[in-house]
């Protein structure tokens, strides 16, 4: 019956054909199978199918329209009142939980519970910081939660008994959220799967525990049929879901089968051969294969930008290696001139796959603009200038430790960087690092930073959401409030940039926001703590039988809930 | 009585091997740099969270205590829980087993079917063209690094035909036997062949060497003097005696491969135990790595025990010793 | 009509060094029911000859004819030949353990043969096999049927082989050294068995051996091979009493089994030729004491009235020939008289009392190998120690030489007790007591040069400086009759006899008082054996050495020793002067040993022999046309 | 003096029959064209490795130098073999030919070093265990059994993952897991040799254990040591290449054959640039094949009767 409703509902969208099994291939397993915790981009595709949020997006080809917030579980996107501090949502009727006792309407209280679950002590969400900052009373709720005994009963009692003062379920249909300060991007934040509602039954389980995974409560068009870690995830239709209560998802296919653990090569091969349909990761096509697809003008290939600055180099301003040379601004600026960014772009397969990047915000993020504080001809680097500046700074024989992940193109990028720097007379020691150790061992561990375990480190950053996402680039990486932050490896802080950012966040005019964020960008770049290298476009590929392949902004991948299969 | 004692001593040794192995892996990871708590808690975890994770996993207890509880769990068949997804390691490994098993069983059948006859044919007429051909095959097979052969056959047999529009072989991947036996076999043909070619070579050589040795034995002359047909002399008399070293080699190979045909699984993207090993290493998922290494050891020990049993059956001298 | 008639058989074996002409132009015929012996030193081509007949040598080039039952074996196709093997012609090989498949029961191996040639039921085959096993003297054959070869003793295994050979009632049994690997007493039993089988079943037996003594007891007719040729053939009595060919006489004279007290062994000088080249003329010429110019031409085959035939230019017709009285042929005479004990008989050089040795095996219970041995060796004396394989001779030798510690008993070496000696003290003692081993190849390190092997004692004991060592070693080499120029050669470049000389010279290096000789000649061919025995005697006299001479062959011991101790199961059962043991053996065991070690031919003093004109086409064919 | 004087005669005969073992060996080797070709190939490889800097100078291409403009298309595709780049370029625009030469240094060094080290350990352990016997033998044999029952590739991966990839660690891992094969063989041979009478003879002369092991046993082990060490080299080369292929071997940008193949495989570059697999692959194959052939040839020449088995 679902299939029928789906097909009738999509009559307008063209000749959508319901049914079939969508085969998706993934390289890595999901990071979490819990909307509160899922943060990996690939996981977002799954969350699109098995969870719903207040706000979401249409999946369309037009890059602008794709980023316009739409009501999902909210009937519409509200305009904030109270000087931008209060949001009032009307909950869509007919949207149901899939719970063992039978379908049940999703109500306003479920959203409050969803926020509360974010700060479960054992398994806190990585996105938690944004919400505690933004929502009134969230911080104190979370502080209280930490003191609760880690038993399901005590935690349930706390969650159900303690309100977040800024989140109110006025009635089942109405939800209000009060903000600590105006936030022009709050609607975008609510589109994250981390802001999903949670049914009361979810409290019986530790977030993302194996028990939770096997008793998952779906709100989306699909639910989990089976999950085998590292191997497969099979989604089947959620009988509680109603097409008419979901304006954004059509849910044509009957089953979605995700297989994990393949190499990027294998994924590409299988998509080409048609034995699988889509890829879980974005940019999983090896450049060589991409090259070939481009040569044949393969229509199944699409490219989109997701604001990803990847890679860029962090410069360790805390190390005393090389006599503390990197602590000097002139030295860092000298290094900015050294890198052949064009070569990095070439490594990604040329300008069709990546663009030279000169600022902290990637294309697509509000605040991105074309500028270069350290221009070199053709962005190919200027070794002579570097040498000159280094000489001026009185630094000779610079030897830098450059760690890199032994994964994908990263060894190649590291070698390319090495080649660039060596042309400029800077010696690079490559330090291969196990991919999963990379952040924990080298970067987030502040001791390593202070001890000089690394000097310059290539990293990548994707904004946590799309569109008005400058905050999710700037705040975690370039602000320092006294307590070390995970991704601000060198405790970088710039008061001028902070002030500009605060203005931008309070602003409601997109144009003004853009201007202010652009100034933030330039202010940070003037300090030369990072060397932006390239912004990568994501290349998406699918099998020939996939139809209506339109990207979902958050997963940066074709939307599983809107494709159909040609048979 | 002697027999049972022999077997008991073999079992005892197997246990020692496993114990040593467990100690090795445990110490390796205990002494290793890097923080497992951070690996579990994720990159963005704060210090309190890390401490909590350590507490939960018992990572802050003394090493001896940790090892004891590890061994205790092990004895109950419990290899602990994966850092990555909190699932029991035993289950994760059991889940991968059918893939590796399919690969190995098919490979064994194929490589024996290729290697042993070549070896016998070579040994029957040493120095002839046929022998030379067999020897050349064996040398090539032994010298071919598995991943080079794998990459080359993927390129030549899969990629080129597929690009040319005549797909012969399916791309990498695994289809469970229970799901579609035909597809299962079809997907495994290239891995099987690759595995078989590089391994058959060893068997061809070993068989040839053993057969040459046995064919020089006095009892082979006796068999010929009895007027037996050459076939019977070769297969019933000579091959019978040439078998024990082959069985040993087979035991070693099967044991090692069951613990993960790492290279083949990597090249062909098969989600077997070897693949699990590589992914767990990349994810620093220590319980899983420990589990995989130990299970690999268990396979080797178990298969070697089977080999010992086969020896008892094969060798009249051991069998009749009492 | 001969059962098998071999004519001009030539076998060439291609090998890496060139073609080995293993058998050249050999003809012989065996009559039905005959016991035909082929004798020859190691490498003379005996095995190749018979195996070539049945097509068992892959890669061999065989020419000639071999008529068996009206068919030429050499012209048969594989299939027909196979059908003859095991049924009409069967073989018994030397080593009964390695000749039986270790992984199958003996029953299975016998019935396999039956099923290959006869279509009978399994039960019938089993009955046949069990019957035959009973007939060859396997007790309780029904239950032994399911045993594996390793569960039998050597003699029993050989019986099994014989049973297998007989079970299809073949016309011809070829036995290739069927008793060489066995103890002398067991050897006698097996020979007896073969002869009984011949008498009982009327099979024809063609037996190969290198042991003249064995054939002297059982064969009807004997063929002597040397370097791939047939040198002589004739009835047993004539051949042993009055050999025609100088080689045969040489063999007999150099064999200690043919010993008469007072007389000396007369070795055949030199060593057998390489088979890689074909020599024209008589192959034996270089070693023949009676050689003359004519021998460079192919000798005629002369046939005499008493059935003897030989390929030799010598015409012995009319001569009264007996090898033992034919002193004219003796090339050299040993000069020393029967040894007289030198030194003080009151103080023996070795006195061992109550030696016990118990080996404790890890799994099995302990084995008592020596059980209260009392033994003295006087200065200048040669004491013989004989006994069957495994009775503990070597063990005793090793204990005396201090290589292993006995579990009980005391040893006094030159008046000094060896109990509780430290390493350094033992090292000093070792200079007085040296060993010469059985296997002349095994006891020399194949990867070291002869000079360094012989010089080892000097190096280890540091008695001779580095530069002096060479001349000392060369002196030793000269002493034992080796060419000192071969100082830098490897042992493999020497013959068996020369290797044994190397071993002896090494033992002499430190001027020991005693040399223990553990079966020093049993691995050598008779013709070489005599050379070594004579060398030992002369050295003993030159340096007044004392010898402990170990052997399983009583005749060798008798030739060498003043006194003989007979060992059985770790005990010395008889210890008396040589001639006393020889004439009046007390123990039954000693008597058995004695019987197995002497020639058993009636002495023929007078033979009237005439040359017989040759009839073409007959057996023992004269070579008519030299190709 | 002696009544039985014939040695000169006998020696003369001996000279005809016996041929010196060395000359025989050389003759056998020379008569085996495959071995000769293999030996020549190995020599060429060694030369190739030694001349790597010369090759770099001659081509003007450093091993890690990236030719972004001439060696790569704008979209980063490597350039096929041709005039400027004899064997083409890799995904970073480096000269494959030059890197192959530098890779030869690594592969050969790892192969030879690891084999030598493993052979030394194997010989020492094997000789000591076999000769001394008893408890020492039991312990050492058990240790060998133990090392052999370890899933080595898994352990190698675990080890390298903990300590990080590096060339010395690779060599150590290779050595650790390959000495046992030779150790076992040597032990077996020594067990047999120990029973030979010449050892007994040396003992009866009062030679010490060490003297027996070195003077008497070692020369007799030359053949298996030589053969096994030769055969160990290709295994070590492949082992190193496999580790590099799994990303656990040498650290970029150092060129090694396995690493080159891994880089070609990792991002499927080889699908558009076959030369990235073919040249390193064939060179690797050629090297292992040559060492195997030479090892076999040596075995046939030195020890024609034996069929010494071989490990993996
Ligand atoms: N397969 C073979 N290839 C080359 N030469 C061989 C082969 N078999 C035997 N020979 C050689 O042929 C000669 C005769 O060997 P054969 O075995 O017949 O001697 P034999 O008289 O039986 O000696 P033994 O008493 O030691 O058994 C020897 O020189 C031997 O080395
Ligand atoms: N190291 C040992 N451990 C256990 N038993 C042994 C050992 N050495 C010898 N024996 C046993 O001791 C017995 C006597 O052996 P020994 O070598 O002294 O006999 P032998 O008379 O020299 O025999 P042969 O004539 O065969 O040389 C045999 O039964 C043998 O099996
Ligand atoms: Mg013979
Ligand atoms: Mg003995």
Automatic annotation (TrEMBL), chain C:
Gene Ontology terms, MF aspect: ATP binding; ATP hydrolysis activity
Keyword annotations from UniProtKB, A to Z: ATP-binding, Nucleotide-binding, Transport
Gene Ontology annotations of biological process type: peptide transport; transmembrane transport
Pfam entry (one): ABC_tran
Domain of life: Bacteria
Gene3D superfamilies the UniProt entry points to: P-loop containing nucleotide triphosphate hydrolases (3.40.50.300)
SUPFAM superfamilies in the record: P-loop containing nucleoside triphosphate hydrolases
Record InterPro entries: AAA+_ATPase, ABC_transp_ATP-bind, ABC_transporter-like_ATP-bd, ABC_transporter-like_CS, Oligopep_ABC_C, P-loop_NTPase
Domain ABC transporter: 4-252, 350-594
Protein name: ABC transporter ATP-binding protein
Species of the source: Candidatus Lumbricidiphila eiseniae
TrEMBL record, chain D:
Origin: domain of life: Bacteria
PROSITE patterns named among the record's database cross-references: ABC_TM1
GO BP: transmembrane transport
Location relative to the cell: Cell membrane
Residue stretches in coiled coil: none
Family matches, as InterPro entries: BP-dependent_transpt_permease (IPR050366), MetI-like (IPR000515), MetI-like_sf (IPR035906), OppC_N (IPR025966)
Keyword list, A-Z: Cell membrane, Membrane, Transmembrane, Transmembrane helix, Transport
Pfam families membership: BPD_transp_1, OppC_N
Domain ABC transmembrane type-1: 104-295
Family named by the database record: Belongs to the binding-protein-dependent transport system permease family.
The protein's name: ABC transporter permease
Organism the protein comes from: Candidatus Lumbricidiphila eiseniae
Lineage: Bacteria, Bacillati, Actinomycetota, Actinomycetes, Micrococcales
């Amino acid at each position: 019956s679902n299939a029928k409703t789906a097909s009738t509902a999509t009559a307008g969208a063209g000749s959508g054909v319901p049914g079939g099994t969508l085969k998706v291939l993934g390289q890595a397993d999901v990071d979490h199978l819990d909307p509160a915790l899922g943060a990996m981009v690939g996981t977002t595709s799954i969350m699109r199918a098995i969870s719903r949020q207040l706000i979401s997006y249409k999946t369309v080809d037009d890059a602008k329209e794709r980023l316009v917030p739409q009501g999902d579980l909210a009937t519409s996107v509200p305009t904030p009142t109270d000087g931008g501090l209060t949001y009032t949502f009307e909950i869509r009727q007919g949207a149901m939980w899939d719970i063992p006792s039978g379908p049940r309407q999703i109500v306003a209280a479920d959203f409050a519970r969803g926020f509360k679950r974010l700060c479960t002590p054992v398994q806190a969400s990585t996105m938690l910081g944004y919400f505690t900052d933004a929502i009134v009373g969230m911080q104190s709720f979370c502080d209280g939660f930490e003191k609760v005994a880690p038993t399901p009963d005590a935690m349930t009692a706390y969650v159900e008994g303690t309100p977040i003062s800024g989140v109110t379920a006025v009635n089942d249909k109405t939800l209000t959220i009060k903000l600590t300060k105006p936030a022009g991007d709050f609607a975008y934040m609510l589109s994250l799967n981390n802001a999903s509602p949670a049914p009361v039954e979810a409290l019986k389980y530790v977030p993302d525990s194996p028990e939770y995974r096997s008793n998952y409560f779906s709100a989306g068009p699909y639910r989990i049929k089976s999950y085998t870690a590292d191997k497969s995830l099979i989604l089947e239709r959620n009988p509680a879901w109603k097409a008419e209560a979901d304006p954004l998802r059509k849910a044509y296919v009957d089953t979605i089968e995700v297989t994990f653990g393949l190499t990027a090569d294998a994924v590409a091969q299988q998509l080409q051969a048609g034995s699988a349909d889509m890829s879980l990761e974005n940019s999983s096509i090896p450049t060589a294969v991409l090259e070939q697809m481009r040569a044949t003008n393969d229509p199944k290939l699409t490219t989109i930008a997701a604001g990803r600055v990847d890679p860029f180099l962090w410069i360790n301003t805390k190390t005393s290696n090389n006599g503390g040379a990197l602590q000097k601004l002139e030295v860092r600026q000298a290094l900015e001139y050294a890198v052949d960014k064009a070569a990095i772009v070439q490594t990604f397969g040329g300008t069709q796959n990546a663009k030279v990047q000169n600022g902290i915000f990637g294309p697509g993020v509000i605040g991105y603009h074309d500028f270069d504080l350290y221009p070199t001809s053709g962005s190919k680097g200027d070794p002579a200038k570097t040498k000159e500046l280094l000489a001026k700074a009185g630094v000779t024989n610079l030897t830098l430790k450059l760690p890199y992940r032994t994964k994908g193109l990263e060894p190649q990028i590291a070698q390319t960087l090495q080649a660039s720097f060596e042309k400029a007379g800077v010696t690079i020691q490559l330090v291969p690092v196990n991919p999963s150790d990379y952040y924990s061992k080298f970067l987030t561990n502040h001791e390593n930073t202070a001890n000089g375990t690394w000097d310059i480190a290539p990293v990548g950053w994707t904004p946590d959401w799309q569109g008005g996402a400058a905050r999710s680039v700037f705040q975690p990486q370039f602000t320092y409030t006294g307590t070390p932050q995970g991704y601000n490896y060198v405790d970088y802080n710039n008061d001028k940039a902070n002030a500009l950012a605060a203005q931008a966040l309070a602003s409601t005019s997109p144009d003004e926001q853009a201007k202010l964020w652009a100034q933030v960008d330039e202010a940070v770049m003037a300090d030369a703590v990072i060397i932006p290298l390239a912004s990568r476009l994501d290349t998406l590929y699918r099998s020939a039988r996939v139809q209506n392949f339109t990207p979902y902004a958050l997963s940066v991948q074709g939307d599983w809930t809107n494709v159909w299969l040609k048979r | 009585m002697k027999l049972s004692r022999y077997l008991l001593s073999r079992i005892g040794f197997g246990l020692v091997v496993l114990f040593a192995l467990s100690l090795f892996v445990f110490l390796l990871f205990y002494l290793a740099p890097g923080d497992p708590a951070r690996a579990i808690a994720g990159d963005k975890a704060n210090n309190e969270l890390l401490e909590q994770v350590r507490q939960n996993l018992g990572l802050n207890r003394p090493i001896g205590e940790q090892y004891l509880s590890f061994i205790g769990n092990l004895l109950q068949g419990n290899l602990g829980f994966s850092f990555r997804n909190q699932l029991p390691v035993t289950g994760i490994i059991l889940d991968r087993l059918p893939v590796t098993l399919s690969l190995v069983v098919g490979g064994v059948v194929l490589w024996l079917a290729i290697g042993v006859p070549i070896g016998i044919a070579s040994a029957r007429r040493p120095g002839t063209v046929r022998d030379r051909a067999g020897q050349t095959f064996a040398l090539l097979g032994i010298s071919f690094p598995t991943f080079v052969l794998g990459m080359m056959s993927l390129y030549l047999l899969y990629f080129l035909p597929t690009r040319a529009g005549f797909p012969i072989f399916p791309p990498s991947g695994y289809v469970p036997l229970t799901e579609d036996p035909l597809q299962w076999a079809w997907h495994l043909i290239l891995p099987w062949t690759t595995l078989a070619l590089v391994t058959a070579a060893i068997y061809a050589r070993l068989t040839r060497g053993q057969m040459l040795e046995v064919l020089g034995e006095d009892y082979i002359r006796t068999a010929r003097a009895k007027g037996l047909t050459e076939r019977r002399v070769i297969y019933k008399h000579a091959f019978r005696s040439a078998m024990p070293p082959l069985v040993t080699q087979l035991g070693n190979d099967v044991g090692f491969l069951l613990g993960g045909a790492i290279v083949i699984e990597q090249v062909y993207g098969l989600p077997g135990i070897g693949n699990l090993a590589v992914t767990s290493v990349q994810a620093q998922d220590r319980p899983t790595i420990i589990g995989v290494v130990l299970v690999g050891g268990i396979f080797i020990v178990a298969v070697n025990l089977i080999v010992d049993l086969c020896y008892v059956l094969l060798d009249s001298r051991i069998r009749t010793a009492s | 009509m001969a059962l098998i008639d071999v004519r001009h058989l030539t076998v060439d074996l291609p090998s890496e060094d060139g073609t080995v002409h293993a058998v050249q132009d050999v003809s012989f015929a065996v009559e039905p029911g005959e016991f035909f012996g082929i004798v020859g030193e190691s490498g003379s081509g005996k095995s190749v000859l018979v195996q070539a007949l049945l097509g068992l040598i892959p890669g061999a080039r065989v020419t000639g004819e071999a008529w068996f039952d009206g068919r030429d074996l050499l012209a048969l196709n594989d299939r027909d030949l196979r059908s003859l093997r095991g049924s009409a012609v069967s073989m018994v090989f030397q080593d009964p353990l390695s000749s039986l498949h270790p992984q199958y029961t003996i029953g299975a191996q016998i019935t396999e043969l039956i099923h290959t040639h006869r279509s009978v039921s399994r039960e019938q085959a089993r009955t046949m096999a069990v019957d035959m096993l009973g007939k060859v003297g396997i007790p309780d054959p029904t239950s032994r049927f399911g045993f594996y070869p390793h569960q039998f003793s050597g003699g029993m295994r050989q019986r099994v082989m014989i049973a297998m050979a007989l079970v299809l009632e073949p016309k011809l049994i070829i036995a290739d050294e069927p008793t060489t690997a066995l103890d002398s007493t067991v050897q006698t039993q097996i020979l007896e068995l073969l002869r009984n089988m011949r008498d009982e079943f009327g099979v024809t037996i063609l037996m190969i051996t290198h042991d003249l003594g064995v054939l002297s007891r059982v064969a009807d007719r004997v063929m002597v091979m040397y370097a791939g040729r047939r040198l002589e053939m004739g009835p047993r009595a004539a051949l042993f009493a009055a050999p025609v060919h100088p080689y045969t006489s040489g063999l007999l004279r150099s064999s200690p089994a043919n010993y008469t007290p007072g007389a000396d062994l007369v070795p055949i000088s030199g060593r057998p030729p390489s088979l890689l080249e074909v020599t024209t003329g008589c192959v034996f010429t270089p070693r023949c004491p009676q050689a003359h110019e004519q021998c460079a031409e192919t000798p005629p085959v002369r046939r005499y009235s008493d059935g003897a035939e030989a390929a030799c230019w010598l015409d012995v017709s009319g001569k009264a020939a007996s090898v033992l009285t034919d002193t004219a042929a003796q090339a050299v005479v040993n000069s020393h008289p029967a040894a007289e004990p030198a030194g003080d008989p009151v103080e023996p050089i070795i006195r061992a009392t109550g030696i016990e040795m118990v080996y404790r095996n890890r799994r099995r219970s302990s084995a008592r190998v020596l059980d209260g041995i009392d033994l003295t060796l006087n200065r200048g004396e040669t004491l013989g120690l004989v006994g069957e394989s495994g009775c503990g001779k070597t063990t005793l030798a090793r204990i005396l030489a201090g290589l292993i510690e006995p579990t009980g008993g005391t040893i006094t070496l030159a008046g000094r007790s060896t109990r509780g000696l430290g390493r350094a003290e033992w090292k000093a003692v070792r200079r007085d007591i040296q060993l010469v081993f059985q296997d002349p190849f095994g006891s020399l390190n194949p990867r070291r040069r002869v000079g360094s092997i012989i010089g080892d004692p000097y190096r280890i004991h540091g008695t001779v400086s580095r530069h002096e060592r060479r001349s000392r070693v060369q002196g030793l080499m000269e002493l034992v009759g080796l060419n000192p120029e071969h100082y830098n050669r490897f042992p493999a470049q020497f013959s068996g006899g020369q290797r044994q000389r190397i071993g002896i010279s090494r033992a002499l290096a430190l001027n020991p008082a005693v040399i223990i000789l553990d079966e020093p000649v049993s691995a050598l061919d008779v013709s070489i054996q005599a050379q070594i025995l004579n060398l030992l005697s002369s050295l003993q006299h030159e340096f007044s050495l004392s010898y402990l001479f170990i052997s399983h062959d009583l005749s060798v011991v008798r030739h060498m020793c003043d006194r003989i101790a007979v060992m059985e199961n770790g005990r010395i059962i008889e210890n008396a002067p040589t001639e006393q043991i020889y004439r009046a053996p007390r123990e039954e065991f000693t008597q058995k040993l004695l019987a197995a070690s002497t020639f058993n031919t009636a002495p023929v003093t007078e033979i009237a022999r005439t040359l017989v004109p040759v009839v073409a086409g007959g057996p023992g064919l004269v070579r008519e046309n030299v190709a | 003096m002696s009544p039985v004087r014939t040695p000169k005669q006998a020696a003369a005969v001996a000279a005809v029959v016996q041929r010196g073992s060395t000359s025989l060996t050389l003759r056998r080797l020379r008569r085996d064209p495959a071995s000769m070709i293999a030996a020549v190939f190995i020599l060429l490889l060694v030369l190739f490795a030694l001349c790597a800097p010369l090759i770099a100078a001659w081509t003007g291409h450093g091993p890690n130098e990236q030719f972004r403009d001439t060696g790569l298309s704008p979209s980063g595709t490597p350039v096929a073999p041709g005039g400027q780049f004899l064997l083409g370029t890799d995904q970073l625009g480096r000269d494959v030919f030059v890197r192959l030469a530098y890779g030869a240094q690594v592969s050969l060094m790892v192969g030879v070093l690891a084999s030598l080290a493993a052979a030394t350990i194997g010989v020492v352990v094997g000789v000591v265990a076999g000769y001394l016997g008893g408890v020492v033998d039991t312990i050492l044999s058990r240790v060998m059994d133990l090392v052999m029952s370890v899933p080595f590739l898994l352990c190698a991966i675990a080890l390298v993952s903990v300590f990080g990839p590096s060339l010395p660690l690779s060599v150590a891992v290779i050595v650790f897991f390959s000495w046992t094969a030779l150790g076992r063989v040597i032990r077996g041979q020594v067990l047999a040799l120990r029973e030979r009478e010449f050892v007994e003879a040396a003992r009866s002369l009062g030679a010490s254990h060490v003297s027996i092991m070195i003077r008497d046993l070692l020369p007799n082990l030359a053949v298996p040591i030589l053969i096994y060490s030769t055969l160990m080299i290709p295994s070590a080369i492949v082992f190193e290449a496999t580790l590099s292929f799994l990303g656990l071997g040498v650290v970029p940008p150092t060129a090694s054959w396995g690493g080159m193949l891994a880089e070609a495989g990792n991002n499927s570059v080889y699908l558009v640039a076959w030369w990235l697999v073919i040249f390193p692959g064939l060179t690797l194959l050629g090297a292992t094949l040559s060492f195997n052939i030479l090892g076999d040839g040596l075995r046939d020449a030195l020890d024609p009767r034996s069929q010494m088995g071989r490990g993996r």
